[in-house]
Specification:
This protein is an alpha/beta fold. Helix content is about 40%, strand content about 15%. The strands form three sheets. A six-stranded parallel sheet has the order 2-1-3-4-5-11, sandwiched between helices.
Length: about 350
Amino acid sequence: MITIYDIAQATGVSAPTVSKALNGTGHISVKTRDFILAKARELGYEPNSVARSLATKRTYLIGVIYDDPSMQRGFNHPVFSGVLNKFRESVEAAGYDIIFLSCHTKLSYKAHASFRAVEGIAIINADSRLNKEMIALSGIGIPCVSTNASIPGICTIVSDNRKAGYKAAEYLYSKGHRKIGFLSAPNDEYLPASKERFEGFCEFMDEIGHPFDHSYFQQCDYWTVPSGRKAFEELYKRHSDMTAIFAVSDLIAMGVMNYSHEVGLKIPQDLSILGFDDDRVSEYTTPRLTTFRQDSEGIAALAADLLLQHMVGLPVPNKLIHLPCTFVERDSVCSIQVN
């Protein structure tokens, strides 16, 4: 195995100088650093992470929490898979590795983070059943950032769900729809996305003097296609007069499509459908689904930047930071004549 002493001998510089070049520390010229790095690559040098940790008292590890019990998509999640990929890319460019933290073993998130000696924690997607576990992370002294769960004391970057909900109502209303259904998803105190979309939706309806009729509201059990189908069936049996529906996820919207096809509803002629997330298959449904796209790369890049800043002692805001969504108009919504 090639060591820094081999590189020192090959370059004619001291071992400490080689170490500075390899670790990006100390005061050496750019020319010298580039020369040493080139020689290290030529010799096939590979850094010893264990030795590096022992020497610097650092692990260069960032813990990642990624759970998905409600949508049940795992690493195929339409939003958070993109967040995870971009986050990993960003922190690896800064010299860090990621390790997944789990509390499905005998260790809690807090204990697992301490056991692995992570230098920072990114909560990419959280399990709402583990709120106490999430809250405990804010008090362990390890810098944290969240991209979904709104946890007191932890900086959280999320989509501006309220504005998107407002836009959804505005869009459907502009198309002539007045009897609009709303399919929600499970909510809790720390995972408010569905609730915020509904609040934005109702805000627009209140502003125009046409308050939302809550009998047109139905909550799904999960963020899944079967849950969307089941919830829409219940809602449709109450209100077969609906001309449009806003579903808080594309998977739920696809459940609406499934039931609509079963009962002979034509989309969008009989029922307009608006989704959320711009899932990969949304462009290939029949008809293609009108939806909202979340900025997963923007969320991840900002989360990585803020976490890395926090890890070197720079202040970061302990609050929610909202990034805008993009409206994607396709074919599942049509205009109707206003009565």
